[in-house]
Write a structure and sequence with these properties.
- The complex is a heterotrimer.
- In chain A, the strands form two sheets. In chain A, strands 5-1-6 form a three-stranded antiparallel sheet.
- Chain A has one domain: Outer Surface Protein A, domain 3 (Alpha-Beta Complex).
- Chain A is built from three helices and six strands; from the N terminus they run ββββαβααβ.
- Helices cover 44% and strands 27% of the residues of chain A.
- Chain B is an alpha/beta fold.
- Chain B has a seven-stranded mixed sheet with strand order 3-4-5-2-1-7-6.
- The longest helix of chain B has 32 residues.
- Chain B is globular, with a radius of gyration of 21 Å.
- The chains are: A alpha+beta, B alpha/beta, C alpha+beta.
- Chains in contact: A-B, A-C, B-C.
- Chains A and C meet through strand 2, strand 3 and strand 4 of A and helix 7 and helix 8 of C.
């Protein structure tokens, strides 16, 4: 399964270094997000990603050693983003 | 402003809707009274949205525009919350594979009807088949929704006599969800068959939930206003919705009035349809052919017609807040009794009202 | 015409009449009708430099009247009504002024969505405004009052009103309600301060209102750009310490403390990011008012 920020979804992101706030026009809510979450959201805004492709890209950005732990963290983050309506699942694999 | 008691203030409000071009001639004091009345009726935002749409060049005094803008922001926010709640509901209910129909304001939003703009929505109403209602409730409770009625009597009252279960609300959000299995209380004098409503329901792009067909949407709105509401000033917006629905749908189909009457007969909702057509035409000049009204099977006896024709406009239209009339308060009280009488037989009604007033007394102490 | 230029008898006559007494508060015009002369006297003192207007659009129609025909034999009471509706329980008649102030704030918070309404005080000097977000125990009212008594223009004590369009601050320099020990602190700080009557036993203890300066009242229509956000924290015997904070910290604190951040939607997000990006944001710890005012004076004179 892949995930993306839908193209119709209007997110406003304001980034200050390693901190950011994001306004989700769908829910009307504003969320504070950290460095990892900023990267994930920015990637999912560009194109749909699977958990695997996402963790590969994140690994190269942050130079993480423990890929297993990262994947677990990412799948947690994806569930959270989905609950907040920031991203949706897409069925096509790529 | 001494001249603006009673009849004249009602006229001011009605002409603002029926002949908006005359707004250009209003004095600042007349604008002020209009804004006050619209606000008291929760119509300020939707009126502002209408004017923006139909008369974008109208010169509106800066202070009035500010009040419009403020009201529209609040309405936009409520609409966003409702859409978001519908989005979440749709996601969770899609797992059940049952028919869900979104009713009233929520449906107008889903269909992008322009009267959904500026409407101050407070909750979402959905209709599900009676045999599925327990499953729906259980499923929502398992996904973060919680009941809003904790009083045992109220719980029982809802379940036994109303057409819904007590409202649910997700613990992280604000919008209440009312789940119905029919569009009127079980005790009501009218019994439209919900199976017919499901059979006619139509799909909405991007959602698994459906909405009522054009005709059923109109009839539901009519029956809600004239058989379930108390008919006071805050119900005027429902009549306005009816006017908009009539105007929109009748312009799309020359057979509209014939088909509508036919559907009303099928669902046994001729009477509320008659009232909806009559008062929409009377107050908002809706283009409804007179022969449609005269031939309507729901046309009540002469005496009832006279009574309703006198009372309903007085009850629905806002008053000048500086000059409330005793007559209007009395008429609203009469119509309040009527609404309860229509909702349940007297043997049930009197114990219910007594119980209600008793708990109100206890709460006050 | 200013309230202080109208004979009191004439003010009473207006407030007793159907047409009411219409006062321009900068952000809004209020029509007030009341027969409570003690209340009107206190109001006339605190709002002496505000304009009485005629023939203007009125935002809020407020009546302060005794409830009819019930509980007459008990303690005299007063009811706040807005546009004919009565949203609150009655108050003792002696507390009409705090009820009016509180009720008007409620009305503004409910209807003022053409502004992002921060829960904050605000003052201005040299065209530079400081926003003081209200956090419990921050002492922002005391600080705003002290600054106002040293020549700063009071914008507002309760509402940081950021206009939805343009993001400038809108003034509403109503009297500052000082609570409990702050009353004495301000009287010691500036003995010439004009305070309204003392109201003991309100929900927030004893309250007295500090009269806004003539300059603040006269310039109540003048908009100003926010330059600083200062989160004050009163701490007994502490030095004056100003520490710059990160934008996301300021953003989250302002948003969570606003009256209508959520209602404003994307506009609220945009106005707030504008503010934290264009302002310098500080945490302030203080105890000595003269010290802190000297520091803030320095900030706006650069």
């Amino acid at each position: 399964m892949a995930w993306e920020v839908p193209k119709t979804q209007a997110l406003s992101i304001e980034i200050w270094g390693e901190h950011a706030v994001v306004y989700n026009d769908l829910s009307g809510e504003t969320h504070y997000i950290n460095e990892l979450a900023i990267e994930v959201l920015t990637l999912l805004q560009k194109s749909p990603e699977t958990l695997i492709s996402l963790s590969d890209k994140i690994c190269s950005i942050f130079e993480v050693g423990d890929k297993g732990a990262l994947q677990q963290q990412l799948s947690q983050l994806i569930i959270e983003f989905d609950n907040l309506g920031l991203i949706t699942a897409v069925n096509c694999e790529n | 402003m001494h001249h603006y008691s009673g009849k004249k203030s009602r006229q001011l409000l009605l002409s603002a809707f029926t002949t908006p071009a005359t707004l250009a001639q209003l004095s600042i004091q007349e604008w002020e009274l209009l804004v006050r009345m619209l606000r008291a009726n929760k119509l300020l935002a939707s009126f502002a949205a209408r004017i923006e749409l139909t008369h974008p060049d109208l010169k509106i005094p800066a202070k009035v525009a500010e009040n419009f803008q403020a009201a529209q922001r609040l309405a936009d926010y409520r609409k966003k919350l409702v859409l978001w709640e519908l989005n979440r509901l749709n996601k969770v209910l899609a797992e059940l594979d049952i028919d869900v129909i979104v009713l009233k304001g929520g449906a107008y939003i889903l269909q992008g009807l322009h009267m959904s703009v500026g409407r101050l929505l407070a909750d979402i109403d959905i209709l599900v088949p009676k045999q599925d209602i327990a499953r729906v409730e259980k499923h929502l409770l398992a996904h973060g929704w919680q009941t809003t009625q904790h009083d045992e009597y109220d719980q029982q009252y809802y379940r036994n006599w109303m057409h819904e279960i007590p409202a649910l609300r997700h613990h992280e959000r604000f919008i209440e969800v009312d789940i119905h299995h029919t569009i009127l209380p079980l005790t009501s004098r009218l019994h439209p068959d919900p199976r017919r409503l499901f059979a006619g329901a139509v799909a909405v792009a991007g959602y698994d939930c459906k909405v009522l067909s054009t005709y059923d949407m109109l009839l539901h709105s009519a029956v809600h206003l004239f058989y379930d509401a108390e008919l006071n000033a805050s119900d005027l917006r429902d009549l306005l919705d009816l006017h908009e629905l009539f105007s929109l749908f009748s312009s799309q189909d020359v057979q509209f009035w014939k088909k509508l009457e036919k559907r009303a007969v099928e669902l046994e909702l001729q009477r509320p349809l008659y009232y909806a057509m009559y008062f929409s035409k009377q107050l908002f000049n809706t283009e409804i052919p007179t022969d449609v009204l005269v031939a309507s099977k729901g046309r009540p006896l002469y005496g009832v017609r006279v009574f309703m024709a006198y009372c309903v406009p007085l009850a629905l239209l806002p008053e000048n807040p500086d000059y409330p009339q005793k007559k209007v308060a009395f008429i609203r009280w009469l119509l309040y009794l009527r609404s309860h009488y229509l909702r349940m037989p007297l043997t049930l009604l009197i114990p219910h009202l007594l119980k209600k007033s008793k708990s109100r007394l206890q709460a006050n102490q | 015409m200013k309230i202080k230029d109208i004979p009191f008898r004439q003010l009473l006559k207006a407030a007793h009449s159907r047409a009411g007494l219409c006062i321009d508060f900068g952000m809004c015009v209020v029509r007030l009708r009341s027969r409570e002369n003690d209340f009107l006297q206190a109001l006339a003192l605190l709002y002496q430099d505000f304009q009485v207007v005629e023939g203007q659009f009125i935002d809020f129609h407020i009546d302060m009247q005794r409830p009819v025909n019930y509980r007459r034999w008990m303690q005299a009471q007063i009811v706040f009504s807005i546009n004919g509706a009565k949203p609150f329980d009655p108050f003792p008649v002696s507390h009409a002024l705090p009820l009016f102030e509180w009720g008007l704030n409620w009305c503004i918070a409910k209807q003022g969505h053409h502004h992002l309404m921060l829960h904050a005080g605000a003052v201005e000097k040299n065209g530079k405004a400081i926003i003081f977000p209200a956090l419990p125990g921050s002492g922002k009212s005391t600080l705003s009052a002290a600054l106002a008594l040293r020549g700063w223009r009071l914008l507002s004590d309760e509402f940081g009103l950021v206009r939805a369009e343009g993001g400038l601050l809108q003034a509403m320099p109503r009297p500052i309600p000082l609570k409990n020990a702050s009353i004495q602190v301000i009287q010691d700080f500036e003995p010439s301060v004009v305070l309204g009557p003392l109201f003991p036993k309100t929900r927030k203890g004893t309250v007295a209102h500090c009269q806004p300066s003539t300059d603040s009242a006269e310039r109540c229509k003048q908009l100003v750009k926010p330059a600083f956000v200062v989160f004050p924290q009163y701490q007994a015997d502490s030095q004056t310490v100003l520490e710059e904070v990160l934008p996301h910290y300021a953003f989250l604190k302002l948003a969570s403390n606003a009256f209508n951040y959520e209602v404003m939607g994307r506009t609220g997000f945009e106005r707030l990011t504008d503010i934290v990006n264009s302002c310098i944001c500080f945490n302030l710890t203080y105890s000595d008012l003269d010290h802190v005012i000297a520091r803030l004076d320095g900030m706006v004179s650069q």
